[in-house]
Write a structure and sequence with these properties.
It contains 18 helices and 20 strands. By secondary structure, it is of the alpha+beta class. Helix 6 (408-433) packs antiparallel against helix 8 (449-468) and helix 8 (449-468) packs antiparallel against helix 9 (478-497). Belongs to the SID1 family.
Length: 737
């Protein structure tokens, strides 16, 4: 009262009367505003045609019964009939515990601030919780505008049919960018995991499927759908695995939002035609849980490889490599003259180096993929990883445990191969300890370091493939391919080492070359897509490397790369081919190298012309093609030399060939390309998602893992046993090719 008295005392005479007039005018203005608006007790399912302007506001009152045991969705639809209104119509829905507002026409923005205007808008209301078994709830729809001209519109509020989704029951609906849809799913008793699938009848427009907890507001607009929950973009197919433990209410919303532009899914179009809508299909699945003398042989010796460093243990009288290695006819004894202890240590370095590489490579990979998985779990962004969402079985924080578990075969079979090699090495060392003549002077020299490196590489392939499948995508595909390059390179080195033990590449040279391959793989992933300059440079390097390696192999390292190499090449071509018309001295070696150059030049031309997006797989194909070519040459030359293949090795070859055939069948399925993330667009990759085909747990790609691990193990056994028939043959009677 004291404050009021002091305030009142400051008023000038006559101010009280003026104040009363002002209050009266304000009251009159409110009364006029109320007179401008009209309230209608509206009905569900009825379309109301009306006009609104700045002087007239319409309020529609709706009353309906809400039951705790039954969820009925309510949808508000507004269609603007006036063309090019000067001001938008504002629609405000006032509920018990929520307010929803939107304008018509609705303006959505795309990339580069492009605007898209929609005159039809539809929104589903979020149902507030009920305190009793059932209760009447009243909500209002206010329609207003600031336009002085009348704007015609249509309004309809209706119940959503099939708002609550059922397990294993398909349901069709229509959505547009301005009319998103969402539905509710409640976990039935005994169901802990479901797969939510959405299929569209047309490839575009791009859409987003989101899984959100039951709470208001629901984020169902293009600009906020990624705020909470899990989501993934789609063109025609999307699937998300949902677990009961992630939703305390044992229920969730499935939201489908259509994007304004296809570029949001990586599509080529800047926008798509503004069609009235497109139909999608929503589906939830329940998911439960001989011999002849070398000198008398009428053939010429063949292939070689990269030479080691110049360190040698030969006596001075025998150290002239030009005399030994340029002989027209070579036997294994000519290339197995170094001290066995020195060579054993040299080849053991292969194992220790790859073990070191594995540790330093695997630890940051594991750290990175854990970070990837954490980001997916925290943000709910399902576009980060290329899973087969139709057969993705989560385990704890891991989204697709089946793709990880199927890599166990690589690890176990790699370990088994290491044990087999260890047993063979123990047997061989015991024979050497007994001074067994066959172990000392017969057969292919036994060096086990490369075998240990191969077994370790197979185990690491399993570990890194499992890491890759924690969150598979194109950028980290090298995790899965790095040790594939290693395996291909080590197999070629081992095949060459068998008959060239003294001049095989050192571990440092071999791993440096493989590091260069991985370096180009990274460059191809980053810069290779559609980059003509990159493909020109890579093709030139590929061809030059092929020529240099061919020269190194043909002359077994007895040549020099210096300023006079071109002059010597011209001189040799002139004297041997033009003046004397003589053929190459080493026919077999030349045949292999010509075939190898044809294959590699063809692959280089294919890459330059086609420029495949999946550079990592292209690079791997180069290594595999060269390995298969060399292996076929080795087998043919072995049989041509009068050698035989023992029964066990022959069975391994036939068995491995059959398994490789089945494995490649599953590898070249579209699903494998999807899991590897090599298609490039995550929405397009989901077109190749497939159901589980083995034990309702494993998909096509898991079968590729199983079969390829067996096939690699069989291939290693072939390399280990294919020359067992020579164990009793003197080395000066075993030919080099």
């Amino acid at each position: 009262m004291g404050l009021f008295a002091r305030w009142k005392s400051r008023l000038k005479p006559g101010a009280v009367g003026a104040d009363c007039v002002l209050l009266w005018l304000l009251w009159l203005s409110v009364e006029q505003q109320a007179a401008k608006g009209s309230q209608i007790n509206a009905l569900f399912g009825v379309t109301y045609n009306s006009t609104v302007n700045a002087e007239n506001e319409t309020i529609y009152a709706f009353n309906h019964t809400v039951s705790r045991n039954q969820t009925d969705g309510v949808r508000v639809w507004v269609n603007l009939q006036s063309e090019n209104p000067k001001s938008p119509v504002l629609v405000v829905v006032r509920q018990k515990q929520a307010v929803l507002s939107f304008q018509v026409p609705l303006i959505l923005r795309g990339l580069y601030q492009r605007k898209y205007q929609y005159t039809q808008v539809g929104r589903t209301l979020c149902q507030p919780p009920t305190h009793g078994m059932s209760e009447n709830q009243l909500f209002y729809v206010d329609v207003s505008t600031l336009s002085i001209f009348g704007i015609s519109y249509q309004l309809r509020v209706s119940h959503v049919e099939s708002f609550t989704l059922l397990t294993n029951t398909k349901f069709s609906f229509t959505a547009t960018p301005s009319q998103p849809q969402y539905f509710k799913y409640v976990f039935p008793d005994g169901v802990d995991t479901v797969i939510v699938k959405v299929n569209s009848q047309i490839t575009f427009p791009c859409s987003v499927m989101s899984i959100q907890d039951i709470q208001c507001p629901v984020y169902d607009l293009d600009n906020n759908v990624a705020f909470i929950g899990m989501y993934q973009t789609m063109t025609t197919t999307a699937a998300i695995t949902v677990q009961r433990k992630d939703f305390p209410s044992n229920s969730f919303y499935v939201i489908v939002v259509v994007k304004t532009e296809d570029e949001a899914c990586g599509g080529p179009l800047k926008f798509y035609p503004l069609l009235p809508g497109y139909r999608s299909l929503l589906h939830l699945l329940h998911h439960s849980f001989r011999s002849s003398e070398c000198a008398g042989r009428s053939r010429q010796e063949s292939l070689s490889s990269v030479e080691e460093d110049d360190y040698d243990t030969l006596a001075d009288i025998d150290s002239d490599k030009n005399i030994v290695r340029t002989k027209k006819f070579l036997c294994v004894s000519d290339l197995a003259r170094k001290d066995k202890r020195v060579l054993s240590k040299k080849y053991q370095i292969y194992f220790w180096n790859i073990a070191t590489i594995a540790v330093f490579y695997a630890l940051p990979v594991i750290q990175l993929v854990i970070t990837y998985q954490t980001v997916v779990n925290v943000t709910g962004n399902q576009d980060i990883c290329y899973y087969n969402f139709l057969c993705a079985h989560p385990l704890g924080p891991i989204s697709s445990f089946n793709n990880i578990l199927s890599n166990l075969g690589y690890i176990l079979l790699g370990l088994l191969f290491l044990l087999i090699v260890l047993c063979r090495e123990i047997i061989h060392k015991r024979a050497l300890f007994r001074n067994d003549l066959a172990a000392l002077e017969c057969g292919i020299p036994k060096h086990f370091g490369l075998y240990y490196a191969m077994g370790t590489a197979l185990m690491m392939e399993g570990i890194l493939s499992a890491c890759y499948h924690v969150c598979p995508n194109y950028t980290n595909f090298q995790f899965d391919t790095s040790f594939m390059y290693m395996i291909a390179g080590l197999c070629m080195l081992k095949l060459y080492q068998k008959r060239h033990p003294d001049i095989n590449a050192s571990a440092y040279t071999a791993y440096a070359c493989l590091a260069g391959v991985i370096f180009f793989s990274v460059l191809g992933v980053v810069f290779g897509k559609g980059n003509t300059a990159f493909w020109i440079v890579f093709s030139v390097i590929h061809i030059l490397a092929t020529l240099l390696l061919s020269t190194q192999l043909y002359y077994m390292g007895r040549w020099r790369l210096d300023s006079g190499v071109l002059r010597r090449m011209v001189y040799i071509i002139y004297t041997d081919s033009i003046r004397q018309c003589s053929g190459p001295m080493y026919i077999d070696r030349m045949v292999l190298l010509v075939m190898g150059n044809i294959v590699n030049w063809s692959l280089a031309a294919y890459g330059l012309i086609e420029r495949p997006n999946d550079f990592a797989s292209y690079l791997l194909a180069i290594g595999i093609c060269n390995l298969l070519l060399y292996f076929a040459f080795y087998i043919i030359m072995k049989l041509r030399s009068g050698e035989r293949i023992k029964c066990f090795a022959l069975v391994c070859i036939l068995f491995t060939a059959v398994i490789w055939g089945f494995a490649l069948f599953f590898f070249f399925q579209g699903l494998t390309m999807n899991i590897y993330g090599t298609i490039g667009l995550y929405t397009e990759s989901r077109e190749h998602n497939r159901e589980c085909i083995l034990l309702s747990f494993f998909d096509d790609h898991d079968i590729w893992h199983f079969l390829s691990s067996i096939a690699m193990f069989g291939s290693f056994l072939v390399l280990l046993t294919m020359d067992d028939d020579l164990d009793a043959v003197q080395r000066d009677k075993i030919y080099v090719f």
